[in-house]
Design a protein that fits this description.
The chain has 93 residues and is mainly alpha-helical. It has one domain. The chain is elongated.
């Protein structure tokens, strides 16, 4: 692979890492915001999200709860070691 090709490939790869970094940052904050507002996965919080709340954006309450679980799993993936690797490679800051 020529130096130019490698450079182009690595720039594209770095752009993908930048996107992963954005997910890393938001995946940790959204679950906190979610629970701080009193919502929970058991639909029994003070003000649970129900289908009527999200009907206007074309999703269901169960999809919201599922998405929250996915974000929690992403946050768990971003261990300090993984965060250090991503932050060392990214170039968006």
């Amino acid at each position: 692979m020529s130096a130019i090709t490698k450079n182009n490939y690595l720039k594209a790869w770095q752009q993908q890492i930048n996107k992963v970094a954005q997910v890393m940052e938001t995946s940790q904050s959204y679950p906190d915001i979610y629970t701080d507002r009193g919502y929970d996965l058991n639909h029994s919080g003070a003000d649970p999200i129900v289908d009527a709340d999200v009907a206007g954006i074309g999703i269901t309450a169960n999809q919201v709860y599922s998405a929250e679980q996915v974000l929690g799993q992403l946050a768990a993936f971003f261990t300090p070691a993984n965060r250090a690797i991503i932050n060392a490679v990214r170039n968006d800051k």
